Amino acid sequence: MTGLDPVLKRLHLKLPFPALGDNRSHEKRLRDELTSIVSTRPFIPLDVLQRLPECLYAANYNVQVALIKAECGWQVASCIPRDKNASFLGLAIDLGSTSVVFYLINFLTGEIITTASYENPQRAHGEDILERIIFATQGGLKTLQEEVIQLINKAIDDFSKEYSFSKEDLYYISIAGNTTMCHFLMALDPSHICKEPYIPTTNRFDLISANELGIKINPNGLIYVLPNVGSYFGGDLIAGILASRMAEREEISMLVDVGTNAEVVLGNKDWLVACAGAAGPALEGGILSCGMRAQEGAIERVKIDPKTLSVEYKVIGNARPKGICGSGIIDLLSAMFEAGLVDQTGKLIPNRDPKRMKKMNDEWAYVLADEDETSTGKPIYISQSDIKNLIRSKGAMYTILNVVIQSVGIDFSDIDSFYVAGAFGNYIDPQKAITIGMLPDIPIERFVGLGNSAGKGAIRALLEKDSRKKMEEICDKITYLEMNVRGDFMNQLTGALFLPHTDLSRFPTVSKRLGLK
Amino acid sequence: MTGLDPVLKRLHLKLPFPALGDNRSHEKRLRDELTSIVSTRPFIPLDVLQRLPECLYAANYNVQVALIKAECGWQVASCIPRDKNASFLGLAIDLGSTSVVFYLINFLTGEIITTASYENPQRAHGEDILERIIFATQGGLKTLQEEVIQLINKAIDDFSKEYSFSKEDLYYISIAGNTTMCHFLMALDPSHICKEPYIPTTNRFDLISANELGIKINPNGLIYVLPNVGSYFGGDLIAGILASRMAEREEISMLVDVGTNAEVVLGNKDWLVACAGAAGPALEGGILSCGMRAQEGAIERVKIDPKTLSVEYKVIGNARPKGICGSGIIDLLSAMFEAGLVDQTGKLIPNRDPKRMKKMNDEWAYVLADEDETSTGKPIYISQSDIKNLIRSKGAMYTILNVVIQSVGIDFSDIDSFYVAGAFGNYIDPQKAITIGMLPDIPIERFVGLGNSAGKGAIRALLEKDSRKKMEEICDKITYLEMNVRGDFMNQLTGALFLPHTDLSRFPTVSKRLGLK
Q1: How much is the mean pLDDT over chain B?
Q2: Do A202 and B230 touch (CB under 8 A)?
Q3: Does the predicted interface ipTM exceed a cut of 0.85?
Q4: CA-wise closest residue to B283 among B190, B173, B128, B390
Q5: Any idea what DSSP says for residue A141?
Q6: Residue A183 near residue A189 (C-beta atoms within 8 A)
Q7: Nearest CA of chain A to the CA of B191: how many Å?
Q8: Residue B9 in contact with residue B74, Cβ under 8 Å?
Q9: Less Cβ around it within 10 Å: N or C end of chain A?
């Protein structure tokens, strides 16, 4: 694999035998040899020293040494006989508030051995991260920490059983999460994250020993938590920047993490501008009448024939539907708009399809699946209020993107690559998101789904030892725009509360295709 | 105090308040300020981060920060409100096999606040260090470690009660001990120290957290153990070199640690030659009929009037005598030689003082104090065999010194300063040691007692942060002569088994004073 320069280096060494003319200690014998290879004097932890003489005698001075990149240069993490069968593993973690995803990495090959996703046990203290912050400030911080540490230990346990390796073979863990999640992990006071002026306890995490954190891997193993730029711009986003490599290219890219908060980065290798703002939970389906998370039973794709108005949808797990998730909602609004079921102001047109338009709780709603089709026995629909919420969310998202673009005096057309990240970002159909005016009207091939960008960035942090420096540089380079204090946001938002926008010149291909005026 | 540049730096900082335009995290706010002062980015341990927000709010951003010199640059060890009354303390330890001496240091002033000596509890497993190594290899290593850690914790406890400080105020500990004692402290395999080719497990100790070792000081506190050059040339000697500053001067110095093993260093700022060899326990009184350690009741000074042959002696604690310690024995043999009670071959002359010469166990002995004078009701004497042992030991000592001198092709007269260190080295009267041919016949004013050189070196390691580098350089510079494998040692020794020596030209002032031929 090209460019593989991971945070762990495995060396085979044949040390000279001790003799009366060479009575260097075991430590010095090893250290001299290593220093000549890695050019700086490596740190040797006590645990390694304590086992060293026995290992050297057993190995006849023929050993394999694992070096890991520590806070200041290389550190010996293990010294074992050369003929001993051992693995050299790392773990990358995407520490999400809903799910925690683990990637087991082989340092010698760069290969992802396996991956697994677990529900975040902290959800018991609140689905919303704000609720968890309140729980933390009321004495629950240690509990939140313990839950996530236990989860990490469980994942390691499961992997080590399934793939038959010793926990001593696991040397390094990199963790990407939002600022609050990383504070919980480290039991750092999160109380000022949600209060003006929104101060996290820490932006940069120094390496910490796995032991100190109670994570059961090699006793000399290290934990790296990706840095954040602020309370609302966390290590998950920094991981995304790393995963996209946008900060390493000449061309201008934009990255957006779509969710309740829209987090946006714009820039290239020379400059980066970032912003985060509330887009609202409607985009993720969170507060809609029939919204749900992207689990089995969620409608994730919707098509409406503009002529016959017949409906097709796709359900996760091919089950009977019980709700509609983020990507389905964007598809739905886009399709309804294209089919004339909703007008440019977002108003439902009941007589366009009287069969599906029903009054629900004193307002009009469009029924996507009636009670016979669903697994709950209740219809799945989108109400006039839902659409209003949805338009407010997509409008906020577009406005945030536009404010960032304007802040550096460029146009959307100047963007070479537009990365869409986030829990459901990968599942958004960009064409549909453009149609409703949520994403800018640029050529469709410029959109790139990043997949699990936090996980990808965390993996890169393991496999490229210089990526830590890169991330620190990214953090130093980012100019963070405080959206909450920008006066023009509200004015711009008003124009974006249309489908796709009051200013149709911003969406030329949509206007042309749908004949909008 | 000039040149005070200790391993702990206390800084007063007034941090800027957070604001919407400056929403750096607490960590970054602190780190940016520190980086601008100490010019490298300091490490901030998790423990400090966890307490940081509360401290900053309580202190109104007006704080005092303790930085300690860690493995790679400065590390924040504490951040507390500026108006909080706190001490900033260090502890230097002379880790001897018999006694462990503690020095409590004020980092802000460089002052030694207090000192205390405790018996080494490991003596229960053998007075002799070899017995303890055997005990260690038979499963006792952890016990030996725990005993010394407990002793350190007890001393800290005692100090903190007597001087009313919090253990959090103690930040750094430096420890000087011989190679074996340091291996016990760290639970490192000592079994190869006493077997050819005499390999210690480690020569250089990296800094270790006090927590990891179970030493109860500030949770971010560090432990520094002075390096050794080999199994028989330990950190106590390196401390002595540091304390004497011989490796920082142009002039040539010799340093000898007098004990069962004679450890010798010769050199200046450009070169250092070292050697260790067995002088035998007789010099310390260890195996003599009436020998004892330098405790209450030990005769430490002896005078015999060469004409009247009347005896004067001084007893430690002004008590009735119960034995004779190292410095007393050297005084005694010297005085007996000067008074003609023993001849140049070491043979007692019974008829020179028939009153004090008695047959004991079939051999002649010289009675220093008869049974009426002693606290034991038994006489204190030196027998013919004792003298033979003593001459063998002093001869070995002189021979070691001479081999080292010859190895670099200089004479004793080239030595500018001759440092005498070790448990009883400080109490030796150099004139008496010259008279018996144990130390070379150079002008008396060139002899300098070093006192507790291990303790002094350990203190210097605390108060001069660059001394660690200095010691590593000293270790790298030392050429170690393996005495056991030098063929001419035995030949030379034969000549030294006389009082003062067969070659009287080596002891011109003694020969002249005593009219020897």
Answers
A1: 94
A2: no
A3: yes
A4: B390
A5: H
A6: yes
A7: 9
A8: yes
A9: C
pLDDT tens-digit series, residues A455-496:
999 999 999 999 999 999 999 999 988 766 566 788 889 999
Whether B23 and A71 lie within 8 Å, measured CB to CB: no
Contacts of A53 in chain B (CB under 8 A): 189, 191-192, 201
**Residue B71 identity (one-letter amino acid):** E
C-alpha to C-alpha distance for A447 and B254, rounded to whole angstroms: 77
* Residue among B20, B44, B46 whose CB faces A212 most closely: B46
Task: Retrieve residue B14's tokens.
Answer: 């007034």
With a CB cutoff of 8 Å and minimum separation 6, the contacts of A180 are A97, A129, A132, A133, A190, A193, A231, A234
pLDDT category of residue B354 using cuts at 50, 70 and 90? very high
Query: Which DSSP symbol is given to B137?
Result: I
Phi-psi region of A109 (alpha: psi -120 to 50; beta: other; left: phi over 0): alpha
- Selected for mutation to probe chain A from B33, B46, B178, B238 (highest A CB count within 10 Å) is B46
pLDDT at A486: 62
Nearest-by-CA chain B residue for A22: B197
Please state, in angstroms and as integers, the Cα–Cα distance from residue B353 to each residue in B368, B370, B373, following that order. Answer: 12, 14, 19
Please check whether residue B436 is in contact with residue B499, taking contact to mean a CB–CB distance below 8 angstroms: yes
Checking if the pLDDT of B1 tops 80, the result is no
Q: How far apart are CA A59 and CA A12, in angstroms?
A: 12
CA B255 to CA B234: how far, in whole Å? 14
Say if residue A2's pLDDT is above 70: no
First to last CA, chain A: 53
Give the closest of B72, B228, B485 to A72, CB-based.
B72
**Contact yes or no for B31 and A230 at CB 8 A:** no
- The mean per-residue pLDDT over the stretch B421-425 comes to 76
pLDDT tens digits for B70-118? 988 999 999 999 999 999 999 999 999 989 999 999 999 999 999 999 9
